[in-house]
Amino acid sequence: MRDFDYIAPKSVEETIKVLSEYKDEAKIIAGGQSLLNILKQDLMAPEILVDIKHLSELDYITYDEKEGMRIGATTTHHAVEVSPLVIEHYPILSEMEHTLAFPQTRNWGTIGGNLCIQDPTGDVAPPLIALRATVKIVGPNGERILPMEDFSTDYYETVLEEDEILAEVRIPPMAPRTGVAYSKFRIVEGDAPIVGAAVAFTLNEDGTCADARIATNGTAPIPLRIPDAEAVFKGKKITDELIQEAVEVAGEAMECIPDIVASDEYKKRVAKVYIKRMARKALSQIQ
Amino acid sequence: MKKILSFTLNGQPYEVAVKPKTTLIELIRDEIGLTGPKIGCNAGACGACTVLIDGKAVDSCSVLALQVEGHSVETVEGLADGDKLHPLQEAFLDDGGYQCGFCTPGMLMAAKSLLNENPDPSIHEIRHGLSGNLCRCTGYVRIIDSIHDAAQRMKKEGGEKS
Fold first, then answer.
1. What is A178-286's CATH number?
2. Domains, chain B
3. Which among B58, B64, B67 has CB closest to A107?
4. Which CATH number fits domain A56-171: 3.40.50.2300, 3.30.465.10, 3.30.565.10, 3.40.50.1970?
5. Interface confidence (ipTM) of the complex
6. For chain B: N or C, fewer Cβ within 10 A?
7. Positive or negative, the Cα torsion across A89, A92, A97, A98?
8. Can you give the pTM of this predicted structure?
9. Which of B53, B129, B131 sits opposite A108 (nearest CB)?
10. Searching chain A, which residue's CA lies closest to the CA of residue B56?
11. Looking at residue B78, what DSSP letter applies?
12. With an 8 Å Cβ cutoff, are A105 and B110 in contact?
């Protein structure tokens, strides 16, 4: 690892000031569970690390029946996993965190850090996209809110400007008759996912599909929402045949990128299986 | 340039000057001289460097030393109470919970973190709680048995030292 300077601002406001001053010479560190491995390999050499891990003003989980949930960016994976509020209102998030990497990673790593490092196989984004989450970004000109699926731009790249930070994840209340499921494929517990899929359905009172969401990880440089496959379900009664049809549409939409673990063809086949399984699981939660 | 770090290690307050790029495991082993926690993969994958930060297991190779400012860190050296071994250590001895010993300090701390939160874990919960720790001798069965045994012993002791 190359030498760098280190600063631990006392507030979000001070963090933005420091970032505005150092611009691209600075890099933010939160839990550092991915960043330190990148620094150890000299793949990145910031002049200064700006540590926000200890910022307690970004460490919270709240729930409001109208507004839904708000999770501060420096909340650890573990805190999300065991939060009674999360377990009550969005159990899928607790389940996802329960299998994210290892206990050690979850105890120190943060939900915001995970989203910002933008590893294409990351667990956090797909279920958040399925849950229609948004993110709050704070910078020198105030804050902006973006849909979760618009946050990532490329491998390890997000929309964040040099002087901005991700401050909060917001999840709207779940509509009645909604089911959400997420799972991932990997060889060994604790390994990064090879691919994963999250599916959410909201049904009308007559049982037809009011809304569907499908998002995958490991299938593209960024978490991939697949609107074409979602559209297959709109207004229709969800059957196994319809799920199969959507899976085929999703297969066409995914241009999987091979990596050290799996070929593109293999990833696509497995991702299709996971979309199908998660669609059935999400549906079974409502019916 | 070095910065001053204040934290607690095994109950003792420390104030040390460290380079920003020093990781917690490097501080503990190379500068303070406690060599219980081991550097295995140095990438947050093997768990040999596991220590507790505020009672929770963390890979000390994947934390900058400066990040534990104001926190309480515990290594395997802080587990025994003087000459009296912790029930986890006793159970590892009695039940053959280690072979070469390289992973043991990390296993013990991961187990302690697990028992802090869940004093009576099932075998499945123990396996899940240890999913971040590799044993290069592959002696997992005895390790899991030892932790199960330790939990029973601690229950009998009435949680005298958790």
1. 3.30.390.50
2. 3-78 (3.10.20.30), 87-156 (1.10.150.120)
3. B58
4. 3.30.465.10
5. 0.96
6. N
7. positive
8. 0.96
9. B53
10. A107
11. G
12. no
